[in-house]
Amino acid sequence: MLKAEATIPTTAGLAYVAAVCAKLAKSDLDAHAEAGRGRVALVDGLGTGTLEAAADRLHIRLESPTEQGLSVLKFLLSAQIEEAAAAEKPEVVWSGDGCDLTELPSLREMTVRRVAEVTPHVRRITLTGPDLSRFEGDSLHVRLLFPPDGVHPPEWPKPGKNGRPLWPAEERRPVQRVYTIRRIDVAAGEMDIDFVLHAAPGVASGWAAGARPGAVIGLMGPGGREVRPATHMLLAGDETAIPAMARILARLPQDTAGQVLIEVEDEREVQNLVHPAGITLLWLFRRGREPGRNDILADAVMAVSLPQHGDVFCWLGAEEAVARRIRSYWREEKGLDRARCLAVGYWKHALTMDEAG
Ligand SMILES: Cc1cc2nc3c(=O)[nH]c(=O)nc-3n(C[C@H](O)[C@H](O)[C@H](O)COP(=O)(O)OP(=O)(O)OC[C@H]3O[C@@H](n4cnc5c(N)ncnc54)[C@H](O)[C@@H]3O)c2cc1C
């Protein structure tokens, strides 16, 4: 078991323990506090954090079976304590395992190995890098880091004493975007990312449109938990969510029933997705209507009749306003709770979603 700890001199430890645990519980973590003692547990036994408030200090102990779990705990707890104690501005300094690292365990420098056109608007970039085993598993998404033009060699974030990444100065700092690992082959040291080439190219899609073998980008992660398996699944999304839906579908038990609704420009954007026989796939075509500003996907989702009883899970990845609309439809009109539905904003008109969902 890997361990780390930090002691913060403060007289407000009691309030910080309560605030940190309440905030983490809201983000679906198992976290609770009582009488100045708090406990935070990562999912799947990936580690726990124990917080203990005394009159003049707050002591935090972390335990995890993996380096990744320990670094997630350090990151989460430093961030939450710095937020809860914003007025006091305490410095959280960890000691113990992983505290003498010179590279972030979550960061890899990746090189473009191959480029292929999947459809007219989707470019598959195969990236290669060292030791990709941490990127295999249930967390599907990564943060790609694009160095600004003219910064050679690229500068990547380094581990800070508080467990959070220390980023290069603004003008040398890489731009971040969230993408899904479409395929990973740890033995071959490679992964595919499918980039949608949207009409107003940004840093990521512009980079993908011109990427050639040998180009270098950074990668951090993985993150995001997408679905809870259920006997009936509804998956819906636009082209940015095809990689996530493809990976979710490929892992479902063969007896899963349900529907998949995918909005793309036209027939040329249809991809071949592996799925259980009891799941039907419906491709919805925009044919010139604006992505994220039409009702095609939302109308199709709202026309689905879900089973009245039984184990249902509904998932959507699409433009932020579409995701908001469907989230409130599922929660308020269909009465599905957080455990039975998830609608995630994958991109936003004129802005970037840079949070891994
Ligand atoms: C969890 C998660 C997983 C994701 N996985 C993928 C993936 O595997 N493949 C993928 O292609 N995308 C994926 N996305 C979406 C991707 O991160 C965004 O589309 C991102 O904005 C692209 O960055 P950019 O630099 O190209 O454009 P930005 O600089 O962010 O935006 C430039 C302009 O383009 C517009 N724009 C951005 N995205 C789109 C779009 N899809 N369609 C139309 N206009 C758009 C913006 O509104 C803005 O006006 C994912 C997002 C999340 C949150």
Structural write-up:
The chain is α+β, with helices and mostly antiparallel strands. The chain has three domains: 2-96, 2-Layer Sandwich (TATA-Binding Protein); 107-223, Translation factors (Elongation Factor Tu (Ef-tu), domain 3, Beta Barrel); 232-347, 3-Layer(aba) Sandwich (Rossmann fold), CATH 3.40.50.80. Helix content is 20%, strand content 35%. It has six helices and 20 strands. The chain has helices at 13-26, 67-84, 203-210, 242-251, 296-303, 320-333, and strands at residues 2-9, 30-34, 37-41, 48-53, 57-64, 95-96, 107-119, 122-128, 141-146, 158-159, 165-166, 175-180, 183-185, 190-196, 216-223, 232-238, 257-264, 279-285, 312-319, 341-347. It has a seven-stranded antiparallel β-sheet. A six-stranded antiparallel β-sheet has the order 2-3-4-5-1-6, covered by helices on one side. It has a five-stranded parallel β-sheet with strand order 18-17-16-19-20, with helices on both faces. Strand 7 (107-119) and strand 8 (122-128) form a beta hairpin. It is globular, with a radius of gyration of 22 Å. Bound molecules: flavin-adenine dinucleotide. Residues 141, 177-180, 194-196, 198, 200-205, 224, 240, 243, 291, 346-350, 352-353, 356-357 line the site of flavin-adenine dinucleotide. Flavin-adenine dinucleotide binds at residues 141, 177-180, 194-196, 198, 200-205, 224, 240, 243, 291, 346-350, 352-353, 356-357.
